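User: what does the whole thing look like in 3D?
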Amino acid sequence: MLSYWFFFVSSVLMIASLFVEGGPASGGWTIYPPLSALPQAMPGSGTGMTLWLLSMAVFVASALLGGLNYIVTVLNLRTLGMKMTRLPLSVWALFVTAVLGVLSFPVLLSAALLLLMDRLVGTSFYLSEIHIGGEALDNMGGSPILFQHLFWFLGHPEVYIVLLPALGITSEVIATNARKPIFGYRAMIGSILAIGFLSFIVWGHHMFITGMNPFLGSVFVFTTLLIAIPSAVKVFNYITTLWRGNLVLSPAMLFSIGLVATFIAGGLTGIILADSALDIPVHDTYFVVAHFHIVMGMSAIFGMFAGIYHWFPRMYGRMMNTKLGYAHFWITFICAFGVFFPMHYIGLAGAPRRYYSYSEFPMFQGVVDLNILITLFAIVGGLAQIIFTYNFFHSIWRGQKAVQNPWRSNTLEWTAPLKHMHGNWPGAIPVVHRWPYDYSKPGMPEDFVPQNVPLAEGEEEEHG
Amino acid sequence: MMTLLILAVIVLGILAVTRLSRVYELTSALRGKREEDITERDSRMNARLMWAFPFAYFAFFLWLTVAYADQMLPVSASEHGVWLDDLLNFNWAILIVAFFVTNVLLFYFAGKYYYRKDRRAYFYPHNSKWELGWTIVPAIVMIGIIIYGLSVWNRITSVPLAGTPQVELYAQQFNWTARYPGKDGKLGATDFRLISGTNALGVVTPNSIKTRLAELEEIVVVEKKKLETEGGFLPPSKLTALEDHIKHVERMRGRIVNLRTLMDQDIAARGAESPYNHGSDDIVIKEFHLPVRENVDLVIRSQDVIHSVFLPHLRAQMNAVPGMATRIHMKPTITTDSMRTITANPVFDYILMCNKICGASHYNMQMPLTVEPDGAYKVWLSQQKGFETAEIPAAEVVPATDTAAVISNTTANIPAVTNEPKKN
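Assistant: Here's the predicted 3D structure for the full assembly of 888 residues, as structure tokens:
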């Protein structure tokens, strides 16, 4: 509850920052000082920036409380028989996400507090030897690079905080709709843990060209490229799960397959960016914009859509319209690639990000039509979200009433009554007897066996 | 008008969707079809689209690659850029294979195994050999990529050879300044407190210190006078600001006096070798020239916020960070003239652009770079004036009593006041 209300306050502060003099924080989401520390550096570094920082500080408090809640629930409140090796991968992903948040957000909090002090009480954590607005400042001895270290110590795990839940949802949705166990359940858990661990020791790959010691850069190249290994394992495991399945191509399933495609496309360009030498020519160009919007933006959003279509019956007791779901997926999927794929080429042509206009550079005239193409795809893709919005809200009140277990899924949430109630189940909570992926198990009458069904006589338990 | 049209289209679109979906709902209710029943027909249609998609996807990829090949950066104009391009091509070769293989498998399976009532999925929870395979193969590939990548990285970031000539690139909102060493071949010392209208980079020489101290003295006199004459009429906030500003300027003066003491000691100890003796012939200029096929060590500094030196044609990039000097050393290999021939563009220029967001005019913080033969470069350089053109007499020795004005660097963090008229 406290987590929710902190989030509420943080959102109010963030929205308020849009309406103050000088406008909201406008130095990019990374808010590097001194640009963000000195109001005289630009209009967006005024009150809007202070509110942004306060909002982040409150948000971190919210994230910590919420994260602890998840961790404690997963570790201590599993039902009888729900061993860690019987947890659905979606819960595993949320658990590791919460751990990442609890360990990395406090560092952002300290970064934000130090920046607030530089702004408000005249400290010099991030400032040194600056002459701005016709005056030399008193600040000496700080380092703008310190902020970048603190920021990215959160900033990189943050990428996985955004992405891991989507990967968890996808694992669940793909297994259910392929009517087939997720391939390599334990390898999937292992790769979630490996990605989570590695995400803490790669932050420097955002800083190869900040003047950081090149040897330190080499270490970050090594750790960053290691992440390719668990990521490759996940991709191959998804593909093998599809192999010889019986794929129910529901909207949720389509979005999950879409996630695997974007995860591949964005993951591969990550290998270029992780290589410090190759980062020199493409750093801060549109190539980077293409990379992270595909791998982190699109993948996370596709995962979120998959989750909404899949669990909508649980949330509202009604079904979303499937046909509209198909239209939504295909338009979104095609437009998403149409928007972000050409950006690689704009970046390789040398175009920096965060320029609001390229008209001053004759060398970018040749890729102007790519920008037009991107804009067209973006408009169509944006309009397609109207279909989703309509489908979502219409289905909440007017959608077809859901049945108990519409996707014939194994996990426990589908055994709870449709009517929402405190504690989810009336009376005793279900007992778990098996892992969540007994789909199409040989010898079983149905092609799914929910987790609360005891092992049949002579049946062997599958561990994945 | 345009906005109105767009709004109309959106509203009509929403209406159309609502009507269509209503018709669909009524008909499916009549037929007794439920949303969770994904029919074979639906699955087949989506499966076909799953097969069609990669064709469009790969065609888009090939079209972009071919049609925009001539819009990509031309051949690298620096020595290390060639190493980088080779490394990039090596990585692309691996990545494109992985891209095609994984996408083909993904979409082929997604389209082939769509739901049919009479089929049952193959229960196949794991296979340790396969999983080991796709752990080890990427690991080996990654080892190759890491070793090759780091060997190039180490070559690029190695310490420059002793005696490599230095050129300074200085960033400020929103322009670039270059500084070349004068006849002595060495860049002089700098200090941000000396920055003024006549000393844009804050080069430290006995004379520039003297000038700056005089300027600050004048500011103090003017502002104190203003305080006396107008002080009583100012609102309290303005009054405090004025008083703070006077204190600030006096603090700066004190620190510059400190600096002068340091300088005098250094000059006394090292004589001609002192960096404080190298500044007066430095060339400070809003033009950027480099000689072709000569190593150069770029020293990069910033006056205010973080900027970034980005020279895409030379495959070079490094942030400009206030409070520290960053470095790139490189060797340009193609002159501007030759590149004009290569690109068949008679007005081609190498461009230095800022690539770290630095404020309102970030998008236009650029400076052309001319790469020319060594001879032409030397001629150009010899035509430029030094920072202090006239011969400067030796610094006047400051009496020791002046140390009373010295204020420690570490105290006082009162922010500078900027709403006062600027003196520079």
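In plain terms: Chain B touches chain A through 128 residues (CB under 8 Å). The first strand of chain B starts at residue 166 and ends at 172.
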